[in-house]
Amino acid sequence: MTHMVLEVKESLEERCNQILRNMEASLTARDRVGIQDFVLLDPHTSESAFLDNLRKRFHENLIYTYIGTLLVSVNPYKELDIYSKKQMDTYMGVNFFELPPHIYALADNVFRTMQSEFNNHFILISGESGAGKTEASKKILQFYAVSCPSTKLLNNVRDRLLLSNPVLEAFGNAKTLKNDNSSRFGKYMDIQFDHQGGAVGGHILSYLLEKSRVVHQNHGERNFHIFYQLVEGGEEDLLRWLGLERNCKNYRYLVQGDCAKVSSINDKSDWKTVRKALSVIEFSESDTEHLFGIIASVLHLGNIKFDVDARGYATLNNNQEICWGFLIRLKPKQRSPFSVDHAVYARDALAKAIYGRTFNWLVNKINESLANKDSSRKTVIGLLDIYGFEVFSVNSFEQFCINYCNEKLQQLFIELTLKSEQEEYEMEGIEWEPVPYFNNKIICDLVEEKFRGIISLLDEECLRPGEATDITFLEKMEEKIGGHPHFVTHKLGDQKTRKTLDRGDFRLLHYAGEVTYCSDLLDYYSFPVIFKVMRQSKNAIIKHCFPSTEPDSKRRPETVVTQFKSSLVGLTEILMSKEPWYVRCIKPNEAKQPGHFNDVLVRHQVKYLGLMEHLRVRRAGFAYRRKYEIFLQRYKPLCPDTWPNWKGTAAEGVQLLIKHLGYKPDEYKMGRTKIFIRHPRTLFATEDAFQVCKHKLATRIQAKYKGFRVKEDYLKQREAATKIENCWRGLMARKEREKRAWAVKVIKKFIKGFMTRNEPACIDNSEYLAYVRQNYLTRLKENLPKTVLQKDSWLTPPPIMQEVAQLLKKIYIRHMVRKYVRGITPQRKAQVKSTFTCHLCLLFLFFSDLCVRPPQYSVPVVKYDRNGFRPRLRQLIFTQQAAYLVEEAKIKQRIDYSSLRGVSVSNLSDNFLILHVTCDDINKKGDLVLQCDYLFEALTKLSIIVNNQNCIKVVQGSVRFDIQPGREGFVDFKSGQESMVYRAKNGHLMVVTTQCGEMLL
Ligand SMILES: Nc1ncnc2c1ncn2[C@@H]1O[C@H](COP(=O)(O)OP(=O)(O)O)[C@@H](O)[C@H]1O
Ligand SMILES: [Mg+2]
User: Fold this and answer.
1) 409 in contact with ligand 1, CB cutoff 6 A
2) Model confidence over 121-165: pLDDT tens digits?
3) Active site residues
4) Which intervals of the chain are annotated as region Actin-binding (predicted)?
């Protein structure tokens, strides 16, 4: 274990070095512009230094910078090549500071923290309208779509998560002065992950859609995208059915901003995307039919005009009502109970209500398709992309809500970072220099406080008996909250203020700046009368959106703003239960221009986003903290004292653990219940060490398990091997035994033969005597006297060879004498040359073949191999019983005369003879093809011995013979210019002779 810890320590150091090397390597010169993490900013309290760094990096298209784990993003207003699949791969599984800052790094870190700690997270994306929040949230979603494990089922969920975006954007986004694709609703999206990290489902919460946009757009702004998409991109049939013309100008609700066409927006292609997306997120034909029916009906509704009848009531003056009525399956009455003004007001209220409720229906419908039915525990990552703080020249109720929402989120940010951070240090007893920051709680209270807050006052005003107007509401506010430092009206303001403030307006000093609102907030309470009518609609969506169970006028209705307030409380609760991560988006200029960095604008955002304070807290603070128990539980395998079980308190365990890991004193602090780690890199190094260690532990456990499994196999194999070995050994031992027995037998026999060597030949000594004979003959062959004169130097024979030795001596002398005394004719030369060896052969043959009689005749021959007909020099010997073909002292073939079928010779003088034998044994040799210089002599001798003169056959041309039993060969004879023997192409042995004389026997 100690050894393992040492290894881990080493690998930890190595890892740290590697991280540093990676950091170096991954930074190109361009990436080194400024600093990547504001925590390293010097001086960290300087706003100008902060701004300089942002600007420098922005001009190098380095739009991301960290403050610890918070990501600051500056909208580049141009496409950057940093969102490719390759980039995603690069950022997957890599620690924060190993690569240049990126939204993918943040997304990946959130995901991995969720995986390892199995808890819930959310990413709060904030910034003012047009700062890049929605783009950031899309990038994060895309990253998860690519980086998470995928299966067919998961891909399905992934596609729906991704495609829910274009649909929601079509219905909920619009072109504003700030942003061509401004989200006009707040969106909180949960992505649910299973324990393996697969995205298995999702859920969307939407917040207050800016419905006023349906009926009114400021100059330079548009209605929601979907209207333009339908009119521009809708198929001919569809438009005809909806009674629409392909011209936005014809619809009052589309042209008030006077900018139906925008160069940055392609409504036609967006329409196609939406259509496709709708089918992926499971919208049926009838759903889409009803949905577009509603969109078209809103457009028709906008075109309805009213006349006054005699009694002052509004009547319809054109037939648009037929259209919208038809589309939402409603039969409108021709006459209304309203005055014309009232009727117009009611018409718009209806359009807004229809659109707003349809939007909610849409979100629910998308949620149905994203819902994960599996009830096993999931972890979630929430993405909050909510409308940013915004200020227009005229700010109405919706801006009020939007900015209130931003106040709430800022409050949450403060709660979760600045305030809680500092409170935590205090609670944990960690020395701390408090960082001052502006707490916007005072503004939140101004808006939402019970009984005194603006929302309460508004509620009261809307619901009190008697007529409520903008003026009565304003007066009420002046009366109740007039003294509030963040609230001012014309009446309450000083001279300077009065110049910029109309009488009917009021101004709030938000954390992000001053905003002047017109006090027509009273619009926003329900309009029960017209909703009753809607309940009769046959359009399924409308029916669903205006249920008959809706609380009617009998109950005190909730104003829209109160509903919104409650929904924000709900959102805060959702967020507070999760681990927060932040992306702070900054808008570099108001003109949506790439490359323009407006210092004043950015400085303002840096200020109100609280980035400087955040940096200060970060700088002084600790990047990571965890309860001792949790920290110990995770990292205890890294220290031999804490692994596998620690008996003491968690704090003591952690102390031992970090001592073992070599944490330096300034890198951490021990709180009352938590450990605080100053730099992320310390934690990352620890985590890396843990991963190595975990891997090793896993390998050990795995090895143990495998060992257990393998052992069984091994035992079986060993048993089998032992068996085989035993068998083999037995077999070998048996062979050895047999060999020994045989040797003993042979030796015994030899000894017996030796002992009886002088007795007459019998079974006991026959082998021994044969051996003695052969031995003597072999030695004799080697030791023959060189000359006749040396006759005394004859090898002394053993007793049984006395006679034979005498005989041999005689023959030998005769040969030698012949050679020297008589002289030798050239024809006999070959025979003489074979000298004595030949006779020795005969003798050898005689003894070994146990021939009783000596050989009758011997003659040298050339024997032709059966295969390939190669010539070999041999001795042909006839005894009384058989003919022998001998090579030196070796019998090559024995032919019993009884098996001699005949002899073939050719009619030419080629000296060839073929001995035909009967042979049934396939392994025995076949017929003999020989050439003999003493053909006549040899044939005469043979015919005498076998006593059969007819055995010789003279053939002409060709003779067939048996190479071996069953395999035939041929010898072809012919006369020619030159004597030759060769193997012809046809495989026959070709014998060519020069003499033509025929042989006669
Ligand atoms: N990372 C980015 N890269 C390129 N363009 C961007 C990026 N972020 C934002 N933009 C541009 O800015 C516009 C506004 O961004 P958006 O995310 O809609 O702002 P917000 O949601 O904060 O109001 C986008 O339509 C896009 O043109
Ligand atoms: Mg947006």
Assistant:
1) no
2) 999 999 988 999 999 999 999 999 999 888 887 888 899 999 999
3) 129-130, 134, 179, 182-183, 388, 390
4) 568-590
